[in-house]
Amino acid sequence: QVQLVESGGGLVQAGGSLRLSCAASGSVFVMGWYRQAPGKQRDLVATITSRSRTNYADSVKGRFTISRDNAKNTVYLQMNSLKSEDTAVYYCNAAQAGVYYWGKGTLVTVSS
Known about the structure:
Blueprint: E1 4-7, E2 10-13, E3 18-24, E4 30-36, E5 42-49, E6 54-56, E7 64-69, E8 74-79, E9 88-96, E10 99-102, E11 106-111
Parallel strand pairs: 2-11
Antiparallel strand pairs: 1-3, 3-8, 4-5, 4-9, 5-6, 7-8, 9-10, 9-11
């Protein structure tokens, strides 16, 4: 069982930046971020493997950067040039041996 603890959400003005962090209780192969806006489904934001192979949703390419520290089992999401449509609850996700784990989520609110 892997536990995920997110931090770093909050309120920011459009055009601003935030950095999310997620610490896992053990090593995992893939870590990533998903988000869910009110009334919408949960969507992929970005993922990164333990070998630093990354994948981004088209909507965040060029603005968000995912990275990880394998020694700390921690994944980061640097979010720049934030837009009001980025407002959502951001969930950390980890995958190991075919099992998926989720954090409790952290709210990001972008004011226009």
